[in-house]
Amino acid sequence: QVQLVESGGGLVQAGGSLRLSCAASGRTFSSYGMGWFRQAPGKEREFVAAIRWSGGSTYFGDSVKGRFTISRDNAKSTVYLQMNSLKPEDTAVYYCAADVQGRGSYDYSAYEYWGQGTQVTVSS
User: What's the CA gap between 19 and 111, in Å, rounded?
Assistant: First the structure.
């Protein structure tokens, strides 16, 4: 069983930055692909970013490319989402997810474990 706990959400003005963290339990974090997804009220879950188990490959949704980065610290069993140049349309609950096969995918069905989410609100 893997537990994921997100933190770092909050209220920020447009143009500002936030860094989300997702701490994972389990001894094999370094083998997991990790992803971030978000869901705004009334909208479908949207892929934000993913990173393969090795950290060598990262992927981003079109709406966040060039503004967000994803990274991981396997020693701390933590994955990060650095969000810059935030826009009101980035407002959503952000979820991290773990893919035990290590792939890191844009497809939410590839992930077996999910965190509870953290709210990000960007004011205009």
Answer: 22
Distance of CA 3 to the CA centre of its chain: 15
Q: 60-79: per-residue pLDDT in tens?
A: 999 999 999 999 999 999 99
Helix (H) or strand (E) segment spanning residue 89 = none
Tokens at residue 34, please? Answer: 């990790």
Whether 26 shows a pLDDT value over 80: the answer reads no
Q: Cβ(63)–Cβ(46) under 8 Å?
A: yes
Quote the pLDDT of residue 27: 75
- CA 111/CA 108 separation, integer angstroms: 6
Strands (E), the chain: 4-7, 10-13, 18-24, 33-39, 46-51, 58-60, 68-73, 78-83, 92-99, 113-114, 118-123
**CA angle, residues 35, 41, 46, in degrees to nearest 5:** 25
Task: Report d(CA 92, CA 51) in Å as an integer.
Answer: 20
CB 14 within 8 A of CB 89: no
